[in-house]
From TrEMBL:
Protein name: Methyl-coenzyme M reductase operon protein D
Protein's GO biological process: methanogenesis
InterPro entries hit by this protein: Me_CoM_Rdtase_D (IPR003901)
Keyword terms: Methanogenesis
Gene: mcrD
Amino acid sequence: MTKFRRPISNIMDENKLMQIEIFPQRLLNLDTAQKLLNELNVIDGINRMVVYGPGMPKDDPADLLDGKYCVREKKYICIMGEMVELTVQVGRIWIEVRDGSVVEKIREACVKTLPFPFELYEGLYLRTQKTITDYVRKGGEVDDIDLGMFDPGKCVPCCETLPGRKENDLV
């Protein structure tokens, strides 16, 4: 059910972190994505997660037929205890782990929740150093968790918290 481009090496970077990509063969709907994220949220050893995929359509086709334009309800998912507005269709999930033994737990969570084949890859998917873009977007106040959390084509982060919630509030 899974395959690797190459075996997971368990080699950590200079920060003692390793990055894994979950690549399902289909785009995940909201329910399937939340089930997978719920399984991943309980695994110890995961440092951060990012969902990646094509942007959500601006308009719902059913609404266009009814004459409603630019009316799209916001969808939220829970990533590591934080409610995040979903602005992309979930196509891949990038995970930064602190220990190579976590990879098997991630694979088991995927087998449990995904009813179709998927692939796990090891590589470098999330930035590990601050860049000029981070300084421009956040005014130089970027912590290690926020690295790479911005869509370069927009002036807003690609992952936003619920209105009225602080970043440190847990669900």
